[in-house]
Amino acid sequence: MNKVIRNIWIWLVLLFLYAPILILAFYSFTSATMIGTVREFSLANYETLFTTPELVSMILGTLLLALGVALLSTILGTMGAIGSFYSGKKVRGAIELSNQIPVVNADVVTGFSVCILMIAIFHIRKDTYIPLVIGQTALCVPFVYLSVIPRLKKMDHQLYEAALDLGCTPAKALWKVTIPQIVPGIASGFMTAVTLSLDDYFIATYTKPATFNTISTYVVNATRGSQTAIKTALWALSTIIFVVVVVFVVGANKVGNKEN
Amino acid sequence: MSRDFTEEKTLKYSFSRKQLAIPYCIFLILFVILPLLVVIFYAFTNDEGQVSFANFIAFFQSSKTVGTLVYSIVIAVVTTLICLLIAYPTAYILAKTGMRSGSALLLLFVLPMWINFTLRITALKEILTLIEGNLAFHPFFNTILCMVYDFLPFMIMPLYNTLTKLDDSYVEAAQDLGAKKSHVFLKVVLPLSVPGIVSGVTMVFLPSMTNYVVLDMVYNSTYIMGSLIGSYFSAYDWHNGSVISIILLLIICVITFISNRYAEGDDRQQGKVSVLK
Description:
The complex is a heterodimer of chains A (about 260) and B (about 280). Helix content of chain A is about 80%, strand content about 0%. The mean pLDDT of chain A is about 90. Chain A has 11 helices and no strands. In chain A, about 40% of the residues are buried. With about 260 residues, chain A is mostly helical. Chain A has helices at about 5-30, 45-50, 55-85, 90-105, 105-120, 130-155, 160-165, 170-200, 200-205, 215-225, 230-260. Chain B is mainly alpha-helical and about 280 residues long. Chain B contains 14 helices and no strands. Chain B has helices at about 1-15, 20-45, 55-60, 65-95, 100-110, 115-130, 140-165, 170-175, 180-190, 195-210, 210-215, 225-235, 240-260, 265-270. Chain B is globular. Residues about 1-15 and about 265-275 of chain B have low confidence and may be disordered. At the A-B interface, helix 1, helix 3, helix 4, helix 5 and helix 6 of A face helix 1, helix 2, helix 4, helix 5 and helix 6 of B.
């Protein structure tokens, strides 16, 4: 392939991926209510975003939910991975098979099935947030599990035995010897869980309390409505998230590169 | 004597590392396996709680629901093919042509998967509204475009992973033995990248059959399989909702069966996980 053609191709694909986000980011700093119209510079969208109680509580709620779900998933998934790693072949096989179900399953089906289990069988009300947290956790734990297992495979197992021989209790050896060796896997599992929860629409929409909204459910509802101030405030939100993601992914990758 | 004492002490506080899996096992049984059993139960029973295949028969007899199944498959096939056509050359250029800092560039291509998809679709939708005026005139085109926009990073990622691992000596051997450029690609590179293609297809095909939010957002009022679950859910119709879930699960089983024969072990599931490694 010709070098010029290659470069053009790469730039075209990047343009396709980034032009919409960047154009929206540009217009988020203007008073325009539609893109393509020329208006003067304005921070009104950002002001609306941070002063409208509905928007602020929606953003904080989404973040809190994501952190809570990620924490729960990380604890469950890490313990599950360590436990399964040292279990017999049969138990491990069964865990890995069930672990695959939420990974390959469609989110719609996961959300729907967790919802009917919670509501029709267990009679747990959605206002308790329990169905929402459980549903998103069911989606996230498998990814934590999958990111911890490779670290366990790579780790030096004699250190744990050595710690025991030197008189360490198994619990302490696990905490002081095993966990530090698999921290990168745990961290990337946690981050994956956070983004999965932030990106989730389907599980949230089936299991959330009626008055609670995540960013995804809010945006989808907002596109149905016609409140212009809210619509353009979401452009500001999109821009902020874009910047945060760029900083985070580039930063995480720098740390990752240093390690290797 | 003192030795016995320590051993006893260790035993008393000892736990086996296997036991750490217990909470996760309980969680998996309660919230992953059990929901599936509940769905199976609802799909094969009627309102009186009797075993019945009526729900399935109704699904396959109604031209409306069969039409939905066909429409979702068309959307999924077209989305997957276009993603593949865009992603393959991109991944190939990044992985194989000695592009400067190919792996850093890859980050740019997969970064969008970390941004909330509803916000990204909103961005594309605004652009489309500017160009087309009224989105409702081109529902199919807009749907496919938004789906491709949403899922492209998930196709580039596994293809890149497979192509970087591809051993160049095969290509060189083929060239040394006099194969034409097009032959080298068709007979050597393409077959060796099948695992990546399969991984990418599994990551794009099913979501594009079910992600009905994309259709909602571009005002495409035609249903796909996901929309059916959504509408049965709103009507508290657990039985028919479960039927759709079972049909989707069967499709997933087929895809998984095929991909397990071709895909490389971990590659497929990792997706997002491997970005941060």
